[in-house]
Amino acid sequence: MSSIMFSRVKQKQIAQLISSGKRLDGRGLTDYREVQLEDGVIERAEGSARVRLGKTEVMVGIKIEVGEPFPDVPNEGVLTVNAELVPLASPTFEPGPPDENSIELARIVDRGIRESKAVALEKLCVEPGKRVFIVFIDIYVLNHDGNLIDASAIASLAALLNTKMFNYEVTGGEVKIKPGYTPLPVRNYPMAVTFAKISDKLVVDPWLEEEQVMDARLTMTVEKDGKVCAVQKGGYGYFTMQQVLEAAKIAQEKAEELRKLVVKG
Amino acid sequence: MLQETPSKLIDERGIRLDGRGLNELRPVKIEVGVLSNADGSAYIEQGKSKILAAVYGPKEVHPKHLALPDRALLRCRYHMAPFSVEERKSPAPSRREMELSKVIREALEPSVFVEYYPRTSIDLFIEVLQADGGTRCSGITVASLALADAGIPMRDLVAACAVGKVEGRLVLDLTDLEDKGGEADVPLAWMPNLNAVTLLQMDGMLTIKEFEQVMNLALEGCKQVYQLQKEALKVKYVTVKEAVEE
Prior knowledge:
The complex is a heterodimer. Chain A starts with 7 loop residues before the first helix and ends with a helix. Chain A has helices at residues 8-19, 100-115, 148-161, 208-213, 241-262, and strands spanning 35-39, 47-53, 56-67, 78-85, 125-127, 131-143, 164-171, 174-183, 191-198, 201-204, 216-222, 228-234. Chain A is α+β, with helices and mostly antiparallel strands. Helices cover 26% and strands 35% of the residues of chain A. Chain B is of the alpha+beta class. Chain B has one domain (28-245): GHMP Kinase, N-terminal domain (Ribosomal Protein S5, domain 2, 2-Layer Sandwich), CATH 3.30.230.70. Helices cover 30% and strands 30% of the residues of chain B. In chain B, the strands form 2 sheets. In chain B, strands 1-2-3-5-4 form a 5-stranded mixed β-sheet. In chain B, a hairpin with a 4-residue loop joins strand 8 and strand 9 (196-206). In chain B, helix 1 crosses helix 2 (135-149). Chain B is globular and about 55 Å long. At the A-B interface, helix 2, strand 12 and helix 5 of A face helix 1, strand 9 and helix 4 of B.
């Protein structure tokens, strides 16, 4: 992997190319890198997926446990998303408790899944107010080459789609596991589309060096019917109102494109 | 102190629970320069939300290795008091507070000429004393004033406001009840002179057309907040002037 600090010459080159509508790696401004998806890669997990977005690589594992519901929604299962920026993925990642970047990443992915009601949480209740299923989505970043958000969102959805729940019965207040599995009820397919603003232009799916040049970042998550279900601006710069609305329209198209890769048939 | 959850948040005439129309802000009270120790400070009451902000700096960076050679390091802590919400909140920073501290910092940084103060830090503290929805927006509004009060050169004030969808209608400046019972919530921060959106988040579900309407309504809200900010800043200097004259 190339050094994290790269020359001002290259930074300038990236910005200049983009101002003339081109990118250093030959992509158009709204093109994604190649997406490679493998699912069911971790047998011990109830669901899993590994996504490569160019050189960015993210693995997601899903574990399901029995636990207590939140008091305000006693009839619903619990969904939690956590992200680990694993130190082997980049020289800038350090071991330790989650920093603001990993918390933000997890919360953006969480918002897309939660707000689009992708997982039918009301079907994950064992005993109202007492026992429900908890779905743990753990995002594991394995190689950082930019746009971790979209890679993580794709991997999370792909992992949810191959998640198997164990069959169970409740006897004498105990949850007993029975043989066999049923698929986790998933009914929506949110896709995150991230933009970088460079040279006052919107660029889709920024890679690492573009992220280092960008003024600001904008993520729009679009669900299966084309509605926007989560938005997040990041970075130290800003967007104009026109750019935000333009991004929303592009995101709608791109989400559709990505969805075809993840949701088969 | 438990609030009853009402069956309807908006009546058939388009009047909300607290008597506001759909496009109306809550009553806002702002005071600038409220803490003697801070280099800059401000206080805001927006409906029942009460928030205090303070700025320390530009000053030497601690720890030193965080200093940036070409600009000031802007740090921000958004924090909620344990008694600010219905059920006591643990004073330890939650994941939500960590995320909000980050997006608020990124909402304010474009307004500050950080390049004027290399190798220093500007530390910004936002304490939510009572929360009733829209605290990240009110927090940005009041923090921007605290930065101005500290005399830090800025490109513009940052005004913030949230718009949501409640019972199928677009509504300005949500209360906590409206946020929880609503279908979508979009906080927006804006610098009017630069037409710059510096914070934008959303959760909920909106069509592209609704999203566009939401953005326009939020912009109207921000314009009103911006006027209130300017007035509050002027009041401080009028008071100082009067005191000097006496």
